[in-house]
Every structure is written in C-alpha cells, then in structure tokens.
Design brief:
The chain has helices spanning about 5-20, 35-50, 60-70, 95-100, 105-110, and strands at about 25-30, 55-60, 70-80, 85-95. The protein is an alpha+beta fold.
Length: about 120
C-alpha cells in the first residue's frame, strides 16, 4: 500500500481543507509531531497559503509563530475560584509582540519565565 510521511499526511490534510475554498483555515499545532524538514515544508506552505487565506495558527512554538505569522495573539488562563477561564492578554503585529510586548505577562512568557 501507499505510505505517506507525517509531513506528507499533514500537507494532504491542508490540501483537502482548501479544496472546500474556506475563508479561514484553523491549523492547530500542524507541526507538533513532525521532523524539522517536514516542519519547514509545512511552514513554507503556510506562508504561501496566507496570501489567499486567513490562517488561524495555534502553536506553542514561538519560533514558528515568528517565522509565519503576521499577527500574534497571546492567550493565558485565569485560575481562580475553582474555575479556569481563558482570556486574550495581547494581540498585535508579530514583530511588536516578540520584540516589544505591551503586557508584562506576554514578556514573561516569551522570555521563558513560565510556560
């Protein structure tokens, strides 16, 4: 039978998604289980696709966000009173978020003070 690598499988999934001509592609950790070469190919595909599609990329890989994202949003979670509530901390141009974040919590995260 035909066997596809992880990167080939991921690119095939993306191709199937764009066949429906969506306005937005949601990519949730698209490279989390891929080797560096396959990751590079998927990132190159994302850079090409963002010319024609809005891509919402969920990633914990900050270097990947820097390489492919035009805009970055940083979310965190408030754990109080026995509940967990996610919230948007900061959003802006990727370069600004990573080089000069407005919020201390964002700076703490990107500088590795917590993960």
């Amino acid at each position: 039978g035909l066997s596809l690598s992880g990167g080939q499988q991921q690119r095939l999934c993306i191709a199937r998604a764009i066949a429906t001509e969506p306005e937005v592609l949601l990519l949730d950790e698209p490279c989390s289980a891929l080797d560096p070469i396959a990751t590079r190919r998927v990132e190159e595909l994302m850079v090409e696709l963002k010319k024609d599609y809005t891509i919402a990329l969920v990633t914990h890989n900050m270097q990947q966000a820097i390489r492919v994202a035009d805009t970055t949003a940083f979310f965190s979670v408030d754990i109080s009173q026995g509940t967990r509530t996610g919230y948007l901390v900061e959003m802006g141009p990727t370069a600004q978020i990573f080089q000069n974040p407005r919020e201390q919590l964002t700076d703490d995260y990107i500088s590795g003070k917590f993960s």
